[in-house]
Design a protein that fits this description.
alpha/beta; TIM Barrel; eight-stranded parallel barrel; two-stranded antiparallel ribbon
Length: about 375
């Protein structure tokens, strides 16, 4: 199967590099025209999808006031604009289930999918997006496993809302009965669902409902195989077919014609990494994500600039051949079905450079084919 290649879409000025200088060098985040050009460049080079992460609070005062991670654009709202100014590329928006009632998600998702002719997918996240402290009266009452129970009920409700005439559901967290105004989704019985859960409850949810499973690019091979095997075991137990779950990983790319050029640019970005923002990032991510805590514990005493340079992504900074070779390793050795690519400078010019230098090499290796040759399928 051809790999699926996506753009880890910039919904903040510097999504993964903890650098004021990089944030300042990027296009204007709060300009619709910026996002039209970026989305159309991603579609033009033949990427399969745009993946929009989301957060509800900064890591701390430095990340907020530096312009690195604040503002962050609300994923479904930005996704509507991206879908409106493209024709074929797909768009996955993050929705934190703790902040929304399932009927709200049903209406938002129905509109996004129907109006884009079935190009929408949803990344369901059960946390509060880093903002648990904003509403302790809500989140202190819902434990980790209960959030996944609640999310599972939401998927059942959403599937009914998107594919049936009425909703009839009684569970531990929700009791709904009646009709909801449309539109229904073009994808039936529901759009693609992305999950990134690593805990026992998270893997169980992913195995039952996830179509794309995201794991950080830094995940060690043995740990990746253990988690993925468990997720696919759960999928089989729920009667899902082999191949129903596709693994996607996160990759940071700096690519130039030569390795020397790419290293010089990568070193420049690394030198600009802010220690204070990186420290806030590590404290936040390790405290609230077992996935990332495990990764950074295994890395030991890694230079803070290398952490702030790529966050949890797999670092692929090199020549076109080197980047293509490393993506091939993820595919053939790690069993990775696709990658979400993040670019430090996310201008249309950098996206087109990626298309010119890397994608033809992946096609020549036989691990990727342009989406128009496969009807832009997921």
């Amino acid at each position: 199967m051809s790999m699926r290649l996506g753009l880890f879409y910039p919904n903040a000025s510097s999504v993964h590099i903890k650098s004021r200088a990089v944030a300042a060098a990027n296009p204007d985040l709060l300009d619709f025209e910026t996002h039209r050009q970026v989305a159309q460049a991603a579609e033009e080079i033949g990427l399969d999808y745009m993946f929009l992460a989301d957060s509800w609070a900064p890591y701390g005062p430095h990340s907020r006031h530096s312009g690195v991670m604040d503002p962050i654009l609300l994923s479904p709202m930005l996704g509507m604009h991206l879908l409106a100014c493209t024709k074929r590329i797909r768009c996955i928006t993050t929705i934190h289930t703790s902040w929304f009632h399932p009927l709200v998600i049903a209406r938002m998702g129905g509109a996004l999918d129907a109006m884009s002719n079935g190009r929408w997918g949803v990344n369901l996240v059960t946390s509060a997006g880093g903002a648990e402290g904003l509403a302790p009266d809500v989140f202190d009452k819902i434990g980790h496993n209960q959030r996944y129970e609640r999310a599972a009920e939401m998927v059942e409700i959403l599937t009914q809302a998107w594919s049936q005439d009425s909703i009839d559901f009684t569970g531990k967290h929700f009791r709904l009965q009646g009709q909801l105004v449309g539109p229904r989704t073009r994808q039936q019985p529901r759009p693609l669902i992305v999950s990134a859960g690593a805990s026992d409850a998270g893997r169980a949810f992913a195995g039952r409902y996830g179509d794309y499973i995201f794991m950080p690019g830094r995940t060690a091979l043995e740990e990746l195989r253990t988690r993925l095997d468990d997720i696919r075991r759960v999928a089989r137990e729920h009667g899902r077919p082999d191949g129903a779950i596709k693994l996607q990983m996160h990759v940071s790319v700096v690519v130039r014609e030569t390795a020397t050029e790419a290293k010089a640019l990568s070193d420049q970005y690394a030198a600009s990494v802010d220690r204070d923002i990186t420290a806030e990032y590590l404290a936040e991510i390790r405290g609230k994500s077992t996935t990332y805590d495990d990764i950074y514990r295994s890395l030991g005493e890694v230079d803070f600039r290398q952490i702030g340079l790529v966050s949890g992504a797999n670092k692929m900074h090199g020549s076109a051949d080197e980047v293509a070779d490393q993506i091939e390793v993820l595919h053939r050795k790690f069993g990775c079905d696709g990658v979400a690519l993040t670019l430090p400078i996310w201008s249309p010019e950098e996206i087109r450079r990626l298309g010119e230098l890397v994608l033809p090499r992946l096609q020549a290796k036989g691990i990727w084919s342009p989406p128009h040759t496969r009807n832009w399928s997921w």
